[in-house]
Amino acid sequence: MNFKNKELVVEFLGFLFLVAQCLCMVEGEIHFYDFVLREKNFTKMCNTESMLVANGSLPGPVIQVHKGDTVYVNVHNEGDYGVTVHWHGIMQPRNPWSDGPEYITQCPIEPGSNFTYEIIFSTEEGTLWWHAHSDWTRASVHGAIIILPTRGSTYPFPKPDEEEIVVLGSLYSGNLNAMLDADIRTGTDLPHSIAYTINGEPGDLCDCSKETTYRWMVDQGKTYLLRVVNAVVAADIFFAISQHNLTVVGMDGHYTKPITTSYITISPGQTMDLLLTANQSLGQYYMAARQFWSQSIQVSDFNQFNTTAILQYRGNYTIPSSPSFPKTLPLYKDVQSALKFTTRLRSLASKEHPINVPLNITTKMFITLSMNDLECRNTTCTAKEGENILAAGLNNISWSNPGIDILLAYYRNISGVYTTDFPDNPPSFFNFTGEDLPTSIALTELGTKVKVLNYNEAVEVVFQGTNLMAGAGIHPMHLHGYSFYVVGIGLGNFENETDPKGFNLVDPPEVNTFEVPKNGWLALRFIANNPGVWFWHCHLDRHMTWGMAGVFIVKNGDTVETSIRQPPAYLPSCRVPTRPRLQMSDGFEGKANESSFILLH
Ligand SMILES: *[C@@H]1O[C@H](CO)[C@@H](O)[C@H](O)[C@H]1NC(C)=O
Ligand SMILES: *[C@@H]1O[C@H](CO)[C@@H](O)[C@H](O)[C@H]1NC(C)=O
Ligand SMILES: *[C@@H]1O[C@H](CO)[C@@H](O)[C@H](O)[C@H]1NC(C)=O
Ligand SMILES: *[C@@H]1O[C@H](CO)[C@@H](O)[C@H](O)[C@H]1NC(C)=O
Ligand SMILES: *[C@@H]1O[C@H](CO)[C@@H](O)[C@H](O)[C@H]1NC(C)=O
Ligand SMILES: *[C@@H]1O[C@H](CO)[C@@H](O)[C@H](O)[C@H]1NC(C)=O
Ligand SMILES: *[C@@H]1O[C@H](CO)[C@@H](O)[C@H](O)[C@H]1NC(C)=O
Ligand SMILES: *[C@@H]1O[C@H](CO)[C@@H](O)[C@H](O)[C@H]1NC(C)=O
Ligand SMILES: *[C@@H]1O[C@H](CO)[C@@H](O)[C@H](O)[C@H]1NC(C)=O
Ligand SMILES: *[C@@H]1O[C@H](CO)[C@@H](O)[C@H](O)[C@H]1NC(C)=O
Ligand SMILES: *[C@@H]1O[C@H](CO)[C@@H](O)[C@H](O)[C@H]1NC(C)=O
Ligand SMILES: *[C@@H]1O[C@H](CO)[C@@H](O)[C@H](O)[C@H]1NC(C)=O
Ligand SMILES: [Cu+2]
C-alpha cells in the first residue's frame, strides 16, 4: 500500500467515523424489549388479589436508554381483556401511532395478541415512565424509564455515585376493572385504593406488610440520584426521607434549577430526579409517603395510609428497634406545603439546556375544570329513570371515548367519530371558585369534541379550577405528545388583564403534567410542532374516567418531516368488542356504531 492510498484509507475511515457519529447523534441506539402481560396473584395487606402485571413484577421492568435512542417494545397481552400501553412524557415526534391511549390513538391489544410500540426518544432526559392506558389497568401495569444523557455527555450536576428508583403506587381490593365498570354503569363513586406502596410494598406501618418492606441499602458518604415516579392511580403524594434533605434537579424528563427541600409534592403522572447525600449517622431511616388530600376538608374517609420503605446504611452497627419517621412529611390537608413546593420549581434554562417559551401566542384557550352531574337517560348507564350520575368536564363537555380511535378516524378521514368543535372558552362565566354554586349549572353533556391546531401554532392554555358541586380540588393536567411550560399559577379566578403580567417567561418549569391548584388556575404554553392526535386529561384517573379529558389534533406542516409518519403495518383491530363503558346511547351514527359500541355484558 503506497502512501497516497494510506491517506485515502485514513480519510475514508474518518468519513465513516463522521457518518457513524452523525447517525448516532440523529438516530441514537436501538433497543428491543418484550413485555408479557399476565395475571398473577399477589398477597399484600393480608389479602390475595390477582393483578395484571408485566413480566410478573410490580412495578414492571425498567427501560433504560440514552437520550435520542429508539426502543421497540413488543407487548404480549396474555391477560383476559384488551390493554394498551402509554410511554408517559415521551413526545414521540410525528409518531402518535405508538402513544397508546385507548380509543384515542389505537384500539386495545386483544387478549392472546401482541403489538409492538416504537418509542422515539428526542429531547427528554432524566426519568419518565410507562403505564397501561386502558381502564385502570395502570394500577398494576407500569414501570420506570431512565433516560441517560447522550453518550459522551453528562448530567448538569456532579455525577452521583449510584442511582435508585422509587415508584409510588396504589393498591386496590377486588377486581379493579370489574368494580370500575360496575360503578361507571350505575354512575356511583369510583373505587378507592386501600393503601399506597413504595416499589410495590405498603411497608412496616401497614397490616401484614412488615416482612416485605422495601429496603434501600446505602453507603455512608455517597451521593445518590433518586428517580421518583408517581404511578398512583388517583392521588397527589407527599414524600420525604427522615433526616435527609432532597435536592430536586429534574422533573418530567427535563432539568430544573436545584432546589433543596425536606419533602416533595408529586402528582400522579409526574416524575422527579432528586439528589440525596447519605451523610447521616449509620442507621435506618424511613422514606414515607401519604396522600395530599385537596378536596372537601370535611371528608375524612379517604385513604390515609402511610406507606414506608427503609433507607438503611451499610456497616457494622446496632440496628435501632424502629427507624425514624420523617417529621417533615406534610399532613394530608396541608395545602400550603403542597403549593409552597410546586411554586418553587424552575427550569434549569442554561446554555446547555436552553428553553424556548413561546412569546407570540396565536391560539389562546381558557378551559374550566369541573365536577358535574350528567343525566343518565341519554347514556348507557343503568341508574334509575330521571337520576343524575357523577361526571366531570372541561368547558362543560364530558369526554366520551368513541368506538374506533380518533387517530385512525382522522388519518383515514372517517366521519362520524368525533367533532371539531371543542370550544376555546367556557359557555358561561360565573364566579368559578365561588361557594354554593347553583346545581343547575353543574349539569354537563357527553361529547367527543376535539380542538384542531395548525402546525407550529403558539398555544396558551389557562386551566381554571371550579367549585361546581362543591367539588373543588387539585387537577394534575397531563398533555400527550408535548412538554409544556408552566408560565403561571394562581389562586381564585384568573384575571385575564392582570395575571398575565406576572407570567414567568424566563425559566418556567418544562413538564408534561402539572397540577391546577384547588380553586385556582394554571397557565401553560407550548408550540404545536408535533403533528398528531394527542390526548390531554386530568391524571387523577377518577376525573379522567368521569370525562375530564380532551384531544388536540395537530395538523401536518408543509413537508414530510413535519407530517405524521406512516402507520405501522399492523394496528389492533377496533372490530372486536372490548369492555363496556359509558357511551352516548344515541350519539354518532355509522362507523363507530358498527364496532365496539356494543356492550358485552
Ligand atoms: C419479559 O419476559 C419475556 C418472556 O419471559 C422475556 O423474553 C423478556 O426478556 C422479559 N422482558 C424484560 C424487560 O425483562
Ligand atoms: C390466584 O389464586 C386463586 C385462588 O387460589 C386461583 O383460583 C387463581 O387461579 C390464581 N390465579 C393465578 C393467576 O395464579
Ligand atoms: C408479535 O410478536 C412476534 C414475535 O413474538 C413478532 O414477530 C410480531 O411482529 C409481533 N406482532 C406485532 C404486531 O407486533
Ligand atoms: C435541610 O435543609 C434545611 C434548610 O436548608 C436545614 O435547616 C436542615 O438542617 C437540613 N437538614 C438536613 C438533615 O440536612
Ligand atoms: C449532608 O449533605 C447535605 C447536602 O450536601 C449538606 O447540606 C448537609 O450539611 C450535610 N450534613 C452533614 C451532617 O454533613
Ligand atoms: C399516618 O400518619 C399520621 C401522622 O403520623 C397519623 O396521624 C395517621 O393516623 C397515620 N395513618 C394511619 C392509617 O395509620
Ligand atoms: C462489629 O463491631 C463489633 C464491636 O464494635 C466488633 O466486635 C465486631 O467484630 C465487628 N464485626 C465485624 C464483622 O466487623
Ligand atoms: C406573531 O405571530 C403572527 C401570526 O403568526 C404574526 O403575524 C406576527 O408578525 C407575529 N408577531 C411577532 C412580534 O413576532
Ligand atoms: C336526551 O335525549 C332526548 C331524546 O331522547 C333529547 O330530547 C334531549 O335533548 C337529550 N338531553 C340531553 C341533555 O342531551
Ligand atoms: C367568588 O367567590 C369567592 C368565594 O366565595 C369570594 O371570595 C369572591 O369574592 C367571589 N368573587 C366575586 C367576584 O364575586
Ligand atoms: C352546561 O351545559 C348544560 C347542558 O347544556 C347546561 O344545563 C348547564 O347550565 C351548562 N353549565 C355551564 C356552567 O355553562
Ligand atoms: C378578557 O376577557 C374578556 C371576556 O371575559 C374579553 O372581553 C377580553 O378581551 C379579555 N382580555 C384579554 C386581554 O384577553
Ligand atoms: Cu382532576
From TrEMBL:
Binds 4 Cu cations per monomer. It is found in: Secreted, Extracellular space, Apoplast. It is an enzyme of class 1 (oxidoreductase). Its EC number is 1.10.3.2. Residues 1-28 form the signal peptide. Residues 39-150, 164-316, 422-557 form the Plastocyanin-like domain. Pfam families: Cu-oxidase, Cu-oxidase_2, Cu-oxidase_3. Transmembrane segments: none annotated. The keyword Isomerase does not apply. Its cofactor is Cu cation. It comes from the Eukaryota. InterPro entries: Cu-oxidase-like_N (IPR011707), Cu-oxidase_2nd (IPR001117), Cu-oxidase_C (IPR011706), Cu-oxidase_fam (IPR045087), Cu_oxidase_CS (IPR033138), Cu_oxidase_Cu_BS (IPR002355), Cupredoxin (IPR008972), CuRO_1_LCC (IPR034288). GO terms for biological process: lignin catabolic process. GO terms for molecular function: copper ion binding; hydroquinone:oxygen oxidoreductase activity. One of its GO terms (cellular component) is apoplast. It catalyses: 4 hydroquinone + O2 = 4 benzosemiquinone + 2 H2O. Keywords: Apoplast, Copper, Glycoprotein, Lignin degradation, Metal-binding, Oxidoreductase, Repeat, Secreted, Signal. Lignin degradation and detoxification of lignin-derived products. Belongs to the multicopper oxidase family. This is Laccase. It comes from Quercus rubra.
